[in-house]
Specification:
alpha/beta; TIM Barrel; eight-stranded parallel barrel; two-stranded antiparallel sheet; 10 helices
Length: 242
């Protein structure tokens, strides 16, 4: 069975990056919960996709606000940008965590990497957007790295050569030739459902073609509806986390 990664938690049913979305993802049988992480002005990691607090109707930039200031804002009945510490209090070690790292500065990568030692029972996967960030994190140790690159084929081989572990592909950018090349080389490949060129929102899962991608070699699916994906692929296999 493939890994089901709850994109921003169970974001199809709950507010994204919220405790409710994390709880919901776990109950839905997700193998991994994906969380967007950023740093506040005082160096605390918080969970929010956007660089500002527009989700709470506020234009202030997270990187320019302290955690105390950020904590004053809520959206949908939940903190607008809950701390990463709260995520760890909700998500048990039996469910892996994927960080979509929004701040890829050297200091942010260094500090985020420390969570491997702070929470050694959790499987932590670091989603990075540039090859330079992959090189930086790899120099710190053997962290598991997912490539959230721009989708260009020219970067595929380079990503693995500089230390990446799993490559995420956009659904619309998957071709037979590309998949055959990567699969034949033994690389692990995940897919973000929907998004560019599909006519669906990022993370929107189409169960009708899921088996096609599974047969093509995709071993993980980033989806907004982990419950629907679980129904399409079958029961969760215990012990997925490493």
């Amino acid at each position: 069975m493939p890994a089901i990664i709850a994109h921003r938690g169970y974001s199809a049913a709950y507010r994204e990056n919220s405790p409710a979305a994390w709880h919901g993802a776990i109950e839905a049988g997700a193998d991994i919960v994906e969380i967007d992480v950023r740093r506040s002005a005082d160096g605390i990691f918080v969970c929010c996709h956007d660089p500002d607090l527009r989700i709470a109707g506020h234009s202030g930039l997270i990187k320019q606000m302290t955690l105390a200031e950020i904590s004053r804002f809520s959206a949908g009945g939940h903190p607008a940008a809950p701390s990463l510490g709260e995520a760890f209090s909700v998500i048990p070690p039996a469910t892996a965590i994927l960080f979509d790292v929004k701040d890829e500065s050297h200091i942010a990568l260094l500090e985020l990497h420390k969570h491997r030692h702070l929470f050694p029972k959790h499987r932590l996967i670091f989603g990075l957007h540039s090859l330079e960030s992959v090189r930086t994190l790899r120099a710190l140790g053997d962290a598991e790295i997912l490539g959230l690159l721009n989708g260009q084929e020219a970067e595929d081989e380079v990503f693995f050569n500089v230390g990446g572990n799993i490559l995420r592909l956009w659904e619309s950018m998957i071709t037979g030739t590309r998949m055959n090349t990567l699969r034949d080389r033994g690389y692990e490949l995940w897919m973000t459902a929907g998004g560019w060129g599909t006519g669906r929102e990022v993370g929107e899962f189409d169960a009708g073609n899921a088996r096609h991608y599974l047969d093509a070699g995709i071993s993980g699916f980033l989806v907004n509806d982990p419950k629907g994906a679980r129904a399409a692929f079958g029961p969760r296999v215990p012990g997925y986390t490493k």
